[in-house]
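Hi W.,

Here's what went into the run:
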Amino acid sequence: MSAWSRREFLKGSLVAGTGLAAGVGFPKILTAQGKEPIKVGILHSLSGTMAISEAPIKEVVLMAIQEINKAGGVLGRKVEPIVEDPASNWDLFAEKSKKLLLQDKVATVFGCWTSVSRKSVLPVFEKNNGLLFYPVQYEGEECSKNVIYTGATINQQATPGIDYLMSPEGGGKKRFYLLGSDYVYPRTTNKILRLYLTKVKKVPESAIAEEYTPFHHQDYQTIVGKIKSFSAAGDAAVINTINGDSNVPFFKELANQGVTADKTPTMSYSFAEVELQTLDVKPLVGHLASWNYYMSLKTPENLKWVKAYKEWCKGHNIAAKQCVTDDPMMHAYIHVHLWAKAVQKAESTEVDRVLKALEGLEIASPVGKYKVDEKNHHTWKPVYIGKIRADGQFDVVWKTKSWVRPEPWSDVTYPGRGCDWSKNGKGSYDMVGGKRVWLSDKS
Amino acid sequence: MRALVAALVAAWALTGLGGAAAAGPGALDLEAVARRLAAPATQKAAIVGLAEADDPAVERLLRALKDGALYTYKGRIVILGDDGGLTDVASQPVLDAQGQPASVETGQESVALEEAHFGIIQRILERFEVFSPDRAKRQSAAFKLGTSGDPAAVGVLAQAVAREADGGVRLVMEEALAKLRLRSPEPKDRLDAVKRLGRSSSEAAVPQLRALLEQEPDPAVKAAARTALEDIDRFVVRRNIVGYLFNGISLAAVLLIMSLGLAVTFGLMGIINMAHGEMLMIGSYTAYVVQEIFHARFAAYQDYYFFVALPLSFVAAGLVGLVLELGVIRFLYGRPLETLIVTWGVGMILQQCARLYFGDQTSVNSPTWFRGGVEALTGLIFPWSRIFIVALALAALGALWFLLNRTYAGMKVQAVMQNRAMASCLGVSTRKVDAVTFALGTALAGVAGCALALIGTVDPEVGKTYIVDSFMVVVLGGVGKLVGTVVAAFCLGLSNKLIEPAIGGTAAAVYAKVAVLVIVIWFLQWRPTGLFAQRGRAAAETA
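Here's what came out:
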C-alpha cells in the first residue's frame, strides 16, 4: 500500500484548503504537506506511582493526534508528538517542560495530573509564554493565562455530588463525613465543601466531620468505626477524596464492618474507571462517584470513541481488561481536538492567537457539545452521578439538566472573584464596588 | 408477641389514621383502582389513595404502571407480563373469546403515566421492598421506612413484621416500627416505642429520641425517653471501648505477623534485611497469581484459592530468601552496613520486577467467607478477615516457637546463633543452618504478605508500608527475643488504637502514629536494648 491513499490526499487537501486562506493550488498543497511538522509535547508520568493513571492519558492523546494526522494534519502540517516521561517526580515535571518549550519549541503541551505537578510547571509556562492543556479535575483557585483547564472545577464535580446526596433521589442525606488523603486537593475541596454545606445548604457544623490520612495509609479500622457511629441514624454520607491505593483497605473495611452503600453511600471524587480496574470492586458496588463522563454513556459519539479506543488498545499491546476510558481520558482526548480546531481557526500555532481562537470554541465530544468558556480558560460540561457496578463500570443515576459553568474561584470561598482573559482581561479579579480589580495589579 | 405487636399496630392504624385506612386492605376494589389509575384525570388521586396500601397486588399494579406494562383490553385493565401473556389485576390470566390466552393488539399504547407522578409511585414502591425475597433488601427497606418518619408506612411495616421469618431482619423491622410509633398520638404507644428502643440499645434511634424529648407533652414518656437515651449512651461508650480493644488487638496481630519473619532474620541472625517488605510483597503476589489461576481454571472452587495460596506463598518467599542468602548475603556476614545497602538494592530490584511483570493493576479479592463479620455487640462487627489474621498470627507464632525450642533443627539454629564457633566444632554445618534459617524468616514474611492481602493492597510498593513498622516492633521488643517481638507488637498495636480515638481532630491517624513513634524513641533512649534485652555471651559478642 502506498503511503498516500487517494482518500487521505483529498481530505488533506480539503483541510489544507480551508487552512490556507488564499491561492490554494495543487503544487502549493504538495509543498504544504512537505512543510515541517508541528511539534506538540506530551508530559505525563509513564513510570512511578502516577503511571497507572497517566499512561492511559498519553494513549488517548496519541490517538487523537493520529486521527488529526489521518485527516490531513493541522494547517496542512502533520502533528508530531514528543513524549516525555517525568516519572511521577515533581521537579522532573518542571525540567521536562522547560526542555519541551525551549529546546523542542513545541506549539503546545498536553500534560500533568496531580496539582503539585501542575503547580511546578506553571512558572515555566508563564515565563516562556507556553500553552498547557490540563485534563484532570482539580481544586480550582487558579486561572493562568497559559493553561486551558479541561477537567472539572469544584462546582462541576464536588458540589453537584452534594446536591445529589441531599436530593430525595440521593436519599436526602443531612450529615457528611469528609474523608481524604492529606494533600492540597482534598484539603481545598473540603474547605470549599464545608463552606458550601454550611452557607448554601444550611447544614450545621455539628453535622460535618472531616478527617485526613497520609498517602498509602492502610489501617482504616478506627475511622470506619467513627463513620459507623456518625451514620448510625442512616442520614449520613461519606465524601471520599482518598487517593490511590488507600481506597482498597478503606472500602474493604467499610464492607467488613457492615457499612452498606444503600444506608451510608460513599461519594468518591478521585477514582474513575481506570483506577477501578485495579481495585477489588466487590466491596465498592453501589457506592457513588461524580464525573463529567463515564465509559458506559450511551451517546453515539461515545460508542464510536470507545470502539476506536479498543481498536487502538489492540494495536498497542494494552490488555483488554485495562482498555477502559474514563473522565480525564475523555478530557485529554477532546482537548487535543480543541487545540487543533483552534489552530485551524487562528491559522497559526502562536500561543496568543490560539488562546484567542479558543475563547468560546465548541466541539462535539462523547458527552455531547463541549465548550471552552469565553473568558476563564476552563470548559463547560454536564455532570453525571454514577453508581459503581460489579464490572467496574458506572450506572448513571443522575445528570445535570445542562452544561455547568466552570468556576475556577468558587463562589462560596471567594464571592465576587472571577477570571477573565478575553480582550482587556488580565486574569483573576475581585469585584469591588461594581468594578473589577485585577489581582495582578494588587501585588 | 409478634401477633400482638401486629394487632396493636393494626388497631392503632385503624383508629389513629381514620378514614383512609378504615376501608381496610381487604376491602380494596383493585379493578376500580386500576380504572382510576388508567384515567388521566383521576390518576394522581388514585396513586395518592394507594399510599397506605399494604396489599402486594397493589405493588404489582403500580410497578406495571411505572414500567409501562399496563394496558386496556376490552375495557378491562390488564398487565403485560415478561412472557407476553396478559393477566388481570388479581394475577389471573386473561383469556380471549376462544378461551386462548389473550394478547395486546400490536401498536396499542400502554397506559400513560404522567411524569410528575413518577416520584410518588417510586416512594410507594420502595415501601413494598419490605416484602422482597432478598434479605438485605428487606432489611434496608425497613430501616429506611423507620427513618422516614412517615406514618403511612406503619401498616406495611406491621404486615412485614408478621410475615418475617428471619430473626435478624425482624429485629430491624420491629425497631423501625417503634421509631414510627414515636409519632403516634397515643402516649401509651409512644411509651412502648421508647422502651422498645431503649432495650435494643439502638444508636440509630438517638436523633428521633432526642427530638421526642424536646416536644413530648407526657411526663411519663419524657422520663422514659431520658432513661432510654442514657441507656443507649452508656451502651455506646461500653461498645466503643470493646471496639478499640479489638482494633488494637487486630493491629497488634498485623504487626506481629509482619515482623515474625524479621524477628528471625534480624532478631536471631542479625541480618539487616531491607528487602523484608518485598518478601511480604512476594507473598501477596503469590496470592494474586493463585487467585488468577483459580479464576481462569477452577472458577467453581474460586473461594478455596486462599488455602492453596497460603502454603505456596510460604514456599515462594522461602525460595527467594534461600536464593538471596546463597547468592548475596552469605558474602556479607558481619558487615551490617553493606548488608543494609545491598538488601535495599535487592528490594528495589524486586519492586521493579513486580511492576514490570504485574503492572500496577492488581487486586486480591477476599474469599466470600472472609467478607462481613460477626456482630459482637449491636452495631459492632468483628470482621472475619481480622479474626483470621489474629488466629494466623498466633498459629505462626506457636509454630515458630515450637520449631525453635522443641525440635532438633531448632536446637541447631539456636546453637549456631548463640555460639557459632562452638556449634561448628560440634559438627553442626553452620553454613547450611544460616541458609535455612534465613529462608525460614523470609517464608514467614511470605505468609504474612498473603494474609495481609485480605485487608490491604497488592502493589509493587506495598513493601515500603511494612518495613518500618516491622523493624520498629523487633527493635522495641529487643533483638533476638521472640517474646519481645510479641509483647512489642501488642504494646504498639494497642497504644496506637487507644491513642487514635483519644486525639480526635482531622488527622488523628497521623498524630497517633507520631505519638507512638515519640513514645518508642523515648523508650529506646531509656532502654536501648528494648523490652527484653539479651544477656550473656551472645549479647557481649554482638555488642
